[in-house]
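Design job #97: recover the sequence.
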């Protein structure tokens, strides 16, 4: 799923002006070779360099945002796991309490008002 999302984002990115400038795609399929660049005027090589620097800055900014988002998601996940662990412990405590109160009822002891209310609440939920 993440790969598909990355591919979609890659397709959405704007086409580099280098493609129009020199007629060579610079998206990993074909690289600028030294001979091609030697034939270019200095201004054009400078524009290619500037465009590549802009692309690098843009990709770095995008990477930083993705890393921040990933860290936020990890923190949310950790928080949820702690909540689940706390709820599991609480559920075990309640089960043990109910076993004690039910065994007390079976032995003939009168259950306390609190344990009766708790049992009723647990049955209703």
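Job complete. Output follows.
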């Amino acid at each position: 799923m993440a790969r598909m999302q990355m591919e979609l984002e890659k397709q959405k990115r704007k086409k580099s002006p280098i493609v129009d400038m020199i007629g060579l795609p610079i998206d990993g399929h074909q690289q600028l070779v030294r001979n091609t660049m030697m034939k270019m005027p200095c201004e054009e090589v400078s524009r290619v360099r500037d465009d590549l620097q802009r692309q690098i800055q843009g990709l770095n900014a995008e990477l930083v945002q993705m890393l921040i988002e990933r860290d936020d998601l990890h923190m949310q996940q950790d928080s949820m796991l702690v909540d689940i662990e706390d709820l599991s412990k609480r559920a075990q405590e309640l089960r043990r309490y109910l076993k004690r109160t039910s065994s007390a009822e079976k032995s003939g002891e009168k259950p306390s008002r609190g344990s009766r209310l708790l049992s009723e609440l647990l049955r209703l939920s």
